[in-house]
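Hello K.,

You asked for the raw outputs rather than the summary table, so here they are, unedited. I folded two proteins back to back in the same session to keep the settings identical. This is the first:
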Amino acid sequence: MVYRFGEIVSIPFFTETWKPTSFYKKIAENSERKLHTLVLLDIKVKEPTMESLARGKPVYMDPRYMST
């Protein structure tokens, strides 16, 4: 069986003020065209805290990995 893929999409971690939805449309379009969608899930590795950046010495948060 040959797999046919449409556009690849990335799903980022949401924040309180930022919740993008652009990836929904691409997944729907791929589905309508009977194509698979490769979905890239967000990771947060070595992300400094905003507080530490303000102080000029980065302190990093624990890594986070998005799961299905």
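The second followed immediately with the same parameters:
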Amino acid sequence: MSQYVAAIDQGTTSSRCIIFDAQGQIAAIDQKEHRQIFPRPGWVEHDAAEIWTNVQAVTKGALAKLSITPKDLAAIGITNQRETTLLWDKATGKPVHNAIVWQDTRTDLLIRDLAGEAGQDRFRDRCGLPLATYFSGPKIRWLLNNVPGVRERAERGEVLFGTMDSWLIWNLTGRHVTDVTNASRTMLMNLETLDWDDSLLDAIGVPRAMLPEIRSSSEVYGESRGVVEGVPVASALGDQQAALFGQTCFAVGEGKCTYGTGGFLLVNTGEAAVQSKNGLLTTVGYRIGDQKPVYALEGSIAVAGSLVQWLRDNIGIIKNAAEIETLAATVEDNGGCYFVPAFSGLFAPHWRSDARGVIAGLTGYITKGHIARAVIEAAAWQTREVVEAMEADSGVMLTTLKVDGGMTANGLLMQFLADVLNAPVVRPVVAETTCLGAAYAAGLAVGYWPDIESLRANWRKSAEWTPTMDPALREKSFRKWKKAVQRTMDWIDQDDDQGTDL
């Protein structure tokens, strides 16, 4: 039996490969950042060819660090930034345009046109999603309408669409497939049938011929070529669903929040697709082989860790991400300053693509320490908004929040999160649960792990934070946050250049 399972995590800012042992512990890791391309305000793109080169490099790197060969891997799983949209030439395998990243807002006018008199929830009953620039379907239409000749070729099946999982599986195996979790983020898949929906395809303007086959999250899609020659590619999950799986949230009501580029809170709702009345998304949580799908409610926060990156790269207040906690600790509180990072509009529970970021409450008293603290606190306040929506939809109060992702290394944030939620916050021993979930799903598909109970037995608590904030201060601060949020809205006007061709 092979000793390890590997997972490729193709994320928003970097690609990495992590190799896990049978206990779900990290044996080796390699990571490489890729360029963020900003052609216009609100536009965000990635070079998919660069990403594929990086994926090959980090996979080789992780194997080398452990001094093993592909023969030592039982399977490889894939997890990915979800709604990021790519079209490529079927014959050559070359992208026809840069990938349009999930944060990109160029489809704003198209979204308004699609909403029409029916409004933002026009397609929600079929796909579980509101009309928003976030999702892949409108991004596909933008590419079809704006890259010369592509629509005609796509209708003939000569140009293929995929999210980044499809792009990697295509390059690894030659198969054009995606899984139910990624397909559920396109606005094109019917949540009940788990297939592409003709009425959605017609309304949004996407030819079926360019779409990948929808498969389960845990099954063998094919054998890999190249750097991991012969290894079964046996799972694909969108990054947040992978983290749900990696946190072993297999029971109804169990949930987690991942803090990476954005922040994403998912709660398992079982075999029922629960439609939200409070601005959350209904999505597929995972599907193991031919078992019934498991659904989830999701609250998506567009900007969390990327705000720290922005403070580092665009403003220069800090030199590396770890410095923000030290800088924020130089002050006792935010000094009345609130930072609402609506760089790509507001996601859950507001869904306002016309919003843009604000720093509110500025006075002569404010220092860079207060700004740093406001940046950290923004992730927690946005989480509270999502949790309140989740509680309103489910009728169940949050008792504990499982957390993972890079930002959980920030102890100040974790304590503040417990304070504003008035609930314990728990971090597992293996905080890289996105990769772990992809590895678990791949291992299940090939029998490396026998069942989900064996995965649950691997979960261990690393740290816990409990609330200490005075309730009156908590509610006053939240009231101020909500005032700041209101000040982000209605910033984009109809005549602002969004670069959108309907």
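The chain is about 35% helix and 20% strand.

Happy to rerun anything if the numbers look odd on your end.

Regards,
P.
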